[in-house]
Amino acid sequence: MDGSNVRLTAQDRLPGDPTPRQVVERIIRVDHAGEYGAQRIYEGQLAVLGRTKYRPVLEHMKAQEIEHLRTFSRLIGERRVRPTALLPLWHVAGFALGAATALMGHRAAMACTVAVEEAIDEHYAAQHAALGEDEAPLKETIERFRQEELEHRDIGLENEAEQAPAYRALSAFIKAGCKVAIAVSERV
After folding, report:
1. Full-model pTM
2. 178 burial type by CB count under 10 A (0-12 exposed, 13-18 middle, 19+ buried)
3. String of b and e for 73-107 (b: at least 16 CB within 10 Å)?
């Protein structure tokens, strides 16, 4: 292989676009923040629904989010990436979102999971497309985590997420919040 057909991260960048290093830093920073927030959402849901039949499924999803967080925490150190300054906000907001939706019932908690995971699927897919073969291990990690997030979405759907009160409005609100959190955490 002569490398002439190998796509590199940010190879088509224009003046003013992030450098390849900046692209990778933003990806690691925002994914670290997102996985931190996700495990906090499950902690909030477990605080409310932890004594119900939903505990095992919530624990399963939380365990995967913790593994994702460990991976991005390691990458923060290895790649010398500054984490987002907003982790204290995501600490509170994630738990509050999880607890609030769980207080609305298991269906709303699952609707929260579906909305978050659909936003993350779109986010991870865009990151996967943005990374070149020079970042193959990171690209593979993101794809593996994306598949696990889709599993969480499917679990939410199997547990009556779409039957939550005001499902569409709740889902739209949570997805919009996720998109704002993503945009801010990439840079701050």
Report:
1. 0.93
2. buried
3. eebbeeeebebbebeebbeebbbebbbebbebbbb
User: Tens digit of pLDDT for each residue in 126-166?
Assistant: 999 999 999 999 999 999 999 999 999 999 999 999 999 99
Residue owning tokens 């190879």: 11
CATH number of the domain located at residue range(s) 20-187 in this protein? 1.20.1260
Tokens of 114: 């579906």
Measured CA to CA, the distance from residue 164 to residue 166 in angstroms comes to 6
Long-range contact pairs involving 144-151 (C-beta distance under 8 Å, separation at least 24): 145/31, 145/68, 145/71, 146/120, 146/121, 148/64, 148/68, 149/117, 149/120, 149/121, 149/124, 150/117, 150/121, 151/64
Query: Cα–Cα distance between 89 and 94 in angstroms, integer?
Result: 8
- Report residue 174 as tokens: 């949570």
Domain boundaries, given as residue ranges, for the chain: 20-187
- Cα–chain center distance at 13: 25
> Count of CB atoms within 10 A of residue 3's CB?
8
